[in-house]
Amino acid sequence: MLVGLTGGIGSGKSTVAKMLAEFDDVVVYFADEEAKSLMNTSQEIRTQLIAEFTDEVYKDGLLNRPFLAGIVFRNEKKLKKLNTIVHPIVHKHLQDFIKTHENKDYILYENAILFENGSNRFCDKIITVTAPEMLRIQRVIERDNSTFEEVKNRINNQWSEEKKVLQSNYVIHNVDLTVVKAVLGKIHNKLTKS
To answer: What is the pTM for the complete model shown?
Structure first.
């Protein structure tokens, strides 16, 4: 079973994913981390990114993330182009990961833009993590050393929490980790019984 886990930037979905990964027979595919890795290792992605964004998109052989972010988070067309380059290769990588772990109770597919890129279609169940917007912004500023404006731009490029919640099987409000842990235990029990 493939369980999608999503939430807006700063919602704490990675924290929730790590908590779920502590259960036996659960494995997590972190889409963002895998995409970053593939952008550095896949020749197919590298060739297309250079063609679209110039050779400045790589610096010392590695993806120049500040350069790329400076373009795509200010230009919706460029962001869509980036996604059309990266997502098909990440999706194939996910399919290989699923085959390797099909003996698990479920595979947790952590993806910030699960709905935005249509990956929700492949999930059996979906969990959305939410948190108040100002808390999310504060978390990202502290985590990434970003500015308020940079975080707001990224939030504005994602679906609203309300829209995600409407299409989810489970919702976790990530403000108090003790409460989150208790809720996750209940969700895990339901998922392993289904």
So the answer is: 0.87
